[in-house]
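Subject: Cyclase family protein

B.,
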Amino acid sequence: MGRKIIDLSLDIYHSAPTFPLDPKCAVIVHHTVDSMGYNISQLVMSTHQGTHLDAPFHFLDEGKTVEQLDLDKCIGEALLVDLTHKRPKEPITVDDFMPVADRIGEGTRLIYRTDWHKQYPQKHYFSDFPYMTVELARWLAERKIGLIGMDVPTPNPTDFDPVHKILLGAEIVIVEGLARLGDIGAERFFFMAAPLRIAGRDGSPVRALAMLESIGDTGGPL
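Prediction pasted inline below.
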């Protein structure tokens, strides 16, 4: 009976928190029904606000920009790995993915769940999350996956430069700031995180979605 849609995105609102040095988010009333006959707002924010993706140009001047991304990497079947046992500031390592290593290869859309989104919008959301090691980034790059998604604000808060350069250098799309991955209830699901077509730039907010077969659906596999 159709498909079930799960919204995996954080809200965008006036003064929504960001990393300390990032542009601040502003959602400003520009006109209202009373002033102009319709409501319209001004939106000012980072290309990496909330739930968003990184294009290679984010860390690599020669890397692809948002409008050059292969959207096939951003839309399609994904593999969800449960890492909710990870504690704050605990490393996420290659060993954590060994149980599903045989399903991780070229083009895989890989997403890991820590449930860290529940800490948003508290200040420590941006600093104390379980983090990807440099070694894991290299392991994923060697396997030529297409996308890595996570419910934390960035892969690594301290080694962010080498981790991003390894992943983006391998043209892996990075989707950060996902939410509610626990609502999916399946290891494989259809994932969508299409960016705005921002020409020549480094990233974009996304409306990330999971699409699942509803009970009674006989339409076959996604």
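Helices lie at 33-36, 134-142, 160-169.

T.
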